UniProtKB/TrEMBL annotation:
It catalyses: 3-dehydroquinate = 3-dehydroshikimate + H2O. InterPro entries: DHquinase_II, DHquinase_II_CS, DHquinase_II_sf. Its EC number is 4.2.1.10. This is 3-dehydroquinate dehydratase.
């Protein structure tokens, strides 16, 4: 099975961007965490990042029929984008939302995400390790479905 790992705006700046909040791992390091987890689980992943909202919408749409599930860090678009929520609802694929930082101990405007309404669950505050947790959780759910 294939799991899409989609990353939103400014995550290409990981490692340089507010390291006290997001840590020192770069986007490449994050991809390595996902690749290693996928190898351990024996699943394929399609790892991507974009700063463009519409590109995320298109990528989510393309997951239909191609991916068994989606791990998404919508970054700031999670807080603003009904289009991303609608795209996730339209695919109907099991989705886990990830945030590197604990959005609930930050600004009030980060406490709500539209996208989480389409997610099975949300993992936040565990740094890039959250992606490994998300992949594991999705994998377990797909396994259960296949039984
Ligand atoms: C983030 C949290 C968002 O509030 C923020 O806009 C980001 C990154 C995170 O991974 O912690 O860009 O999604």
């Amino acid at each position: 099975p294939m799991i899409a790992v989609l990353n939103g705006p400014n995550l290409n700046m990981l490692g340089m961007r507010q390291p006290e909040i997001y840590g020192h791992a770069t986007l490449d390091d994050l991809e390595q965490v996902c690749i290693q987890t996928a190898e351990r689980l024996d699943v394929a992943i399609d790892f991507r990042q974009t700063n463009i909202e519409g590109e995320l919408v298109s990528w989510i749409q393309e997951c239909r029929g191609r991916a068994r599930g989606i791990v998404i860090n919508p970054a700031a678009y999670g807080h603003t984008s009904i289009a991303l929520l609608d795209a996730l609802l339209a695919t109907g694929l099991p989705t886990v939302e990830v945030h590197i930082s604990n959005i609930h101990r930050r600004d009030a405007f980060r406490h709500h995400t539209y996208t989480s309404q389409a997610a099975i669950g949300v993992i936040c505050g565990f740094g890039v390790r959250g992606y490994a947790l998300a992949l594991q959780a999705l994998y377990d759910m797909i396994e259960d479905e296949d039984e």
